[in-house]
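Mods, move this if it's the wrong board.
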Amino acid sequence: MHLLKRGVIRFISIQVNYAGMYPENVQLHYWIQRSSRQKLLKSNSSKGRIITMSKSKISGRSLRWFSMSFLVLCVLSGVIFSSCSTKDREAYNIRGQDIRLTILHTSDIHSRLFPYKYVPLTTDEDLGLDPAKGPFGGFARISYIVKRERDKAARAIYLDSGDIFQGAPIFNLFKGEVEFQLLSELKPAAMVIGNHEFDLGVKNLELQYVNNGIFPLLAANYIFDSGVQQKSELGRFVSPYTIVDVDGLKIGVIGMGDIDSMYSIGEGGNSMGITPVDTYTTLTRYINEIRDRVDLIFVLSHMGLSHDVKMVQGYETYLPEGEKAPEGWVRLDDTNPIQYEDPNTPLKEESDNPDLYHKEGWVKYKVPGVKGLDLILGGHLHIVTDPPKVLKDVDGRDVIICHDGAFAKFVGRLDIVVRDGEIKDYTHQIFPVDSTVPEDAEIVKKLEPYKIKLYDEMQITRPVAFSLAKIRRFNANGGDSQLGNLVADAMRVRKRVEAEFAITNSLGIRTDFEQALINIEDLFNVFPFENTVTIMYLSGAEVQETLDYISKRSSERGCKTQAQVSGVSFVMNCTAKKAENIGIGGSGSSCTDDSECSNGEFCAVDKRCRKHLDPSSSYKLATNDYMAGGGSGFLMLKRNTTKYNTGVSLRDTLKDYIQTFSACTDDDFNSLDATTASTLKEAYNNLTKEYLQIPCITLNKLSEGERIKVKNE
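Not the wrong board. Structure tokens:
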């Protein structure tokens, strides 16, 4: 009681399996505050699988209820002292035996708690996501799969690699409350913090976790500010690692949070009160700390595949001359130093070519890979590694790297065979989350009140427009796409933006618009994240540098353009990795040759009259805040000092632009084949009976392959 009054013991809970009523069915959890960390000292469950926590403070009434319940449950169990003590269960003898462990894994769920419309990519289809079995995703289906596979396994552990927040309207309305509640229902052994967990700020993450999360939240490579300047108390609730006892098999799980996408922590840790720590130093410290206490060491990562590989294989980077390198780093002789043109550009260890970041007076180092890892479960890049990657660490031991997709499309299952602390064999499965998967009734029930409020307040089924064609986000030839052009146009002409040209990243557009009705939910599917329009001014030389970078980046990705544009056109030469024949701004009038243009303009690649790029002129650019912050390597935009974030989301920008279009006419429908025209016209007329006017996206409003001409010879 004295400890409770002092706030040292924050929560005590008991859970009983009434079907059994045996000592091993009683779970007794002590959640104890130690300095700035919360540490779970004991957790026993009937299958030895899970650590369960809660951060609800005990009121006087709750304490009286707890005391009475505790006594009653102990009496019912018939073991007042033995069952209700903190004595460990009888130890398992696993030495010299082949132990099988099932690891269930999700990542980057991105608030896809309800099934949603989606057109699977070829890579999705190769993994079993059948276009005929939509809609896809939904947490009730994920729950069904996790529970089914957990029940099949003798030993099982469920882990999540972060970014459960942001990506669907339910997050915008409830701010992460529902995501943490549902994840808690599945009792993960741990979750690592993803970058999108911070989208509404550190305080929101803290609030949602404290109120709704009952699982360990990990991030070993973040130092949280303390004292009077601290931004929140989140550091009290985040741990670097957790140790899970799965029927005698002890697993250390170290969490590694994202750094690349979080510019506010990547620049000194001032904005969010979080300072990042380098990967090698972090992992070496905690591996050494837990090595003798566990059989296996996992990393639960939200750093992306390239960083996961570098955890094992190491990487090269630079430090200023005279700055002390962390222990273990090896200084290299740099026989051909290259000075980067911008002395203010920060170093980035994830660079494929760290020489590009070399500055005069800086020293090159080899950062070694870490020793002692067995498995890395990754996220952040929304990819699936099937089969998993297997790398050799510096001691020649195999390290498995496994990623299991995003947006609630897949659940991964990795089965490993362990003998005396070594993984001897493994198999990997991917379960598509489609309409053939039953829904967990309990999750459906918990979601229902949120669903009602969501539909009532956000009106996600409200029509935005009607499209007479499918609007694709990719062009099969690698150039600009229909949806990309629509989005870039909307950004460029937005009121109070009125830029000369616009650029947005292709992968920021997440799916196609299907033919027929487009509603609010469809806009969230295209733009699940809260990216906003940002304005800046570039010199002609900087425009050239930006378009050259697009060409270079695209050349490394199958010569498929990594950006969509408006108000500018060019030849994307993937062989030379340069942008050529650039036309920008101008009257934009249609043309077939230069003779049809005036005032020094020429007939550009997109058959529009445009101006030649002048290296010394200034041009107004509309882009998104992700690219403006240096995302996807656009460092030339990051260093620009004229940036202004409008705060207007890309989603609203596109919606407002489309709603300036006129209604569908008979002539619009007559441009289609008779059968399609009849079906679409009937659907459109039915909608207009309820809504006065619905804007029409006609075929002549869509174009592709005109603004970025692909050259790959």
